[in-house]
Every structure is written in structure tokens, then in C-alpha cells.
Write a structure and sequence with these properties.
Pfam families: Fung_rhodopsin
Main location: membrane
Helix content: 55-70%
Number of helices: 10
Membrane topology: Multi-pass membrane protein
Strand order of the largest sheet: 1-2
Largest sheet: 2 strands, antiparallel
Protein name: Rhodopsin domain-containing protein
Family: Belongs to the SAT4 family.
Radius of gyration: 20 Å
Order of helices and strands: HHHHEEHHHHHH
Distance between the termini: 58 Å
Structural class: mainly alpha
């Protein structure tokens, strides 16, 4: 029997473990070496908590049959697979939005943009997080009663698929655009500084990892643009931590490098 559940769990937990490793190193430098934790550190900690919680729900979903052919599952397995995968999307989506706020806090502290640019950066981050949250809440509350989303035999009245798909494309576009912007903006500033080219390249690469996360955040690869029960089949990319989290974690001493 074809079972992709183990592969899903491997992808989710391996990427989460890597993110936790980088975050732990960052927190050690910030808390022990510099003896000071900032707003971005707490945001990253919250994002890590969301990533672990999401993976736990994915693991439970896989134990009920997620990753196997839907037709091979009995009714109870189908319903629990959908229910726990839907639950995984709630904290999982926060790992797409909240780390961007940490990156913005980092860039504002290091690059000292103008007041107007700072307002624009925080506005884009807030809009992105609100859009992603609105999308996942609509996903969960699209049916009346709510239990009908995973209770396959219950009579229900659900939103038209176009509504959820439109929200998914909007939120994905916001997320991808902000990933690319936060990756390219520091490179344009750093390249003008008087420092060795190798340092410039290292900093641009470290702060430009959002280019990697921009692709899976794009509308064409968004799992929430699928129908709910299809999305519940368990795209591991939907819940694993993005490089945005790693970007903020890898720059605990960027201020010293810039100086």
C-alpha cells in the first residue's frame, strides 16, 4: 500500500529541527553573550512553538492515515485525518507570517531606514499576517456547522470554493511579495557600504534567504487554494518552517559585522 506519511513526517520534523538549531544558536548569543533579548527574539520563539505544534497535529493526522490513498481509509480514519490536518494549518500558517515581523524588526534595527520606510515595512508585515490569519480562519469556518468540514456524513452549508481560493491567492501573493522584498532590500543597502566584498556577499546571502521562501509562498504552490479535503491530504510544505525563520536566526551578530 502506497503510504507517503513517513516522508511527510520526515520533511516536517527535519526542517523544524534545523530551524530550532539556528534559533537556539541565536538565542544563546543574544541572551548569554549580549545579555539582551529583543522583540524579534520573542517572535521567533513563538514561531518555533507554532511550528512544533503544527508538526504534532500533522503526526496525529498521519497516524490516522494521512499520506495514504483516501479511498483506502474507513470513515473514522478519513474524518480524523481531515480534522487534525485542518488543526495543523492554524499554527502552521503562523510560521509563514510572524517570522516576517522578526525580520522587519531586525532590518529596522540594523539598517535604520527612514521613518516613512519603517512605517511601510511594518504596515506590509501587519497586512501579510492579517491576510494569512484571515485565510486560515475562513478555511476553518467555511462550513456551517463547523464540524461538517471533517464530518463527512453531516449536512452542511459551505462557502463557494472561489471565496477561499481568492483569499488564498491574495494571502499567498502578500507573503511571497514580502519575502522577496525583505530579501532584496538589505542587499541594496549593504552593497553601498564600504566593506570587503566577501562580507557584503555573506551578509546579502544571510539576509536574502527569503528568496527561497518566496517560491513556496507563491499563489501557484499554495495548498489552501485547493478544496479543503484535497488540502487535507497533507502537503508537507504547508507546515514546515520557512527560511524566513532561519534568516532572523542566523544574524545574531550582524550589528558587529556592519560596524
Amino acid at each position: 500500500m502506497d503510504d507517503k506519511g513517513p516522508m511527510m513526517l520526515t520533511v516536517c520534523w527535519v526542517f523544524t529541527a534545523l530551524a530550532l538549531l539556528f534559533v537556539s544558536a541565536r538565542l544563546y548569543v543574544r541572551a548569554v553573550v549580549h545579555d539582551k533579548l529583543g522583540f524579534d527574539d520573542y517572535v521567533i520563539l513563538f514561531s518555533c512553538f507554532c511550528a512544533v505544534l503544527s508538526n504534532i497535529f500533522v503526526t496525529i493526522s498521519v497516524s490516522w492515515g494521512n499520506g495514504r490513498h483516501f479511498a483506502d481509509l474507513d470513515l473514522e480514519q478519513k474524518e480524523n485525518t481531515i480534522k487534525f490536518m485542518m488543526a495543523a494549518y492554524v499554527p502552521g500558517i503562523e510560521t509563514l507570517g510572524f517570522p516576517k515581523l522578526a525580520v522587519i524588526a531586525l532590518l529596522v534595527r540594523l539598517l535604520m531606514p527612514s521613518r516613512l520606510h519603517t512605517i511601510v515595512l511594518w504596515s506590509m508585515g501587519t497586512i501579510c499576517c492579517l491576510s494569512l490569519t484571515a485565510m486560515v480562519m475562513t478555511l476553518l469556518l467555511q462550513c456551517t456547522p463547523t464540524q461538517a468540514l471533517w464530518t463527512l456524513t453531516m449536512p452542511h452549508n459551505c462557502l463557494a470554493p472561489d471565496v477561499l481560493e481568492g483569499l488564498a491567492y491574495w494571502a499567498s501573493t502578500c507573503s511571497a511579495f514580502l519575502d522577496f522584498y525583505l530579501a532584496i532590500y538589505p542587499a541594496t543597502v549593504l552593497w553601498k557600504l564600504q566593506m570587503h566584498t566577501k562580507k557584503k556577499l555573506a551578509l546579502c546571502c544571510a539576509l536574502g534567504m527569503g528568496l527561497i521562501s518566496g517560491a513556496p509562498a507563491s499563489p501557484s504552490s499554495n495548498p489552501w487554494s485547493k478544496k479543503p479535503k484535497a488540502a487535507a491530504s497533507g502537503d508537507p510544505g504547508a507546515t514546515r518552517p520557512t527560511p524566513t525563520m532561519t534568516t532572523t536566526s542566523t544574524m545574531p551578530k550582524a550589528q558587529e559585522i556592519l560596524v
